[in-house]
Amino acid sequence: MAHRVTRLEVRHSVPNPVSSSDHVAGTDTTTPSIPDKKSVGYFRPQRIAEVYAAVEAILQEEVAGASQVCRFLNVSRSAFYAWKGANSTPHEKEDLELAPLVRTIFQRHRRRYGTRRIASELSDMGRSCSRRRVAKLLQSQGLKAIQPKSYKPRTTESRHRLGYSPNLLLEGEEADGIDHLWVGDITYIPVDGRPFSYLATLMDRFSRRIVGWQLACDMTETLVLAALKEAIRSRQPGPGMIHHTDRGGQYAGAEYRGVLRRAAMRQSMSRADNCYDNAFMESCFGTFKTELEMTEYANHTIAFREIGGYIAYYNHERKHSALGYLTPAQFETHLDRSK
């Protein structure tokens, strides 16, 4: 960008006065000079409109966003947009209206929304905007969404003698309504001063809603029982629902299976050493950790608060492409209304 501004400086530079010794008879040797400057901050045409024109020219080359260019040239971004609005086409004026809306949505979702979800939310507001246009508006403001990491499967340590349940999903059992299939898993949460805390969740496979969760300092049967009991209290599922997890010993304990039996749930487990049987839940944890920008929490209490806040966001605010860009809560409400 500095190189681009330097070229603009040449365009707007003022000729130096020429002494008598510089003249040759019949020849004008006056030439534009380029001042010896330590920074491009020297660039300042006499008319502020020329600075705004320079900002616009740099933006057209897509080397930086409007915020960065305006800061670089020491001009107000809002004043630049006001000038641009007075000299814009109808399409450009609409971009000026859409830009702050895009920025507000982007910031409200803490950089978790990309072009698809932002375009969907604009549509909810009655503003039609293509993904390509959203991308340009994001770029012009120097905004970049969190990039999801690729899914890396892992296997569960399942060396126990508590017995395993069959994988009912291999028999063609799939979710065709809410509370027909819950999937669960455990993941580690890094916390300062201790090895880890552990998060157990249960998700409704049809609506993608987190129906139960718990965070604890150890990975025991008590952890997964808390998540299961919360899910049963809040959902009251009917008999015959499938409960699918990996083969971890926590899910094979006598107390856990007793709760499943009393709730008339059918237990299903992944095949031995086959991480892909429960890949959906593990991939979901990848989304959690990416969008929370999870590194290491200061303590267990802070981790509990942050994760609880994110799960509420995930259920009630985050649009899911698989749900037609509805939140899980919206999706379930639509299902109830259609019955």
From TrEMBL:
GO molecular function, one term: nucleic acid binding
Disordered: region residues: 1-38
Domain Integrase catalytic intervals: 162-336
Taxonomic superkingdom: Bacteria
PROSITE patterns given in the database record: INTEGRASE (PS50994)
SUPFAM superfamilies per UniProt: Ribonuclease H-like (SSF53098)
Bias type Polar residues, positions: 16-33
GO biological process, one term: DNA integration
InterPro entries, alphabetized: HTH-like_dom, Integrase_cat-core, RNaseH-like_sf, RNaseH_sf, Transpos_IS3, Transposase_IS3/IS150/IS904
Record's protein name: Integrase core domain protein
Annotated source species: Pirellulimonas nuda
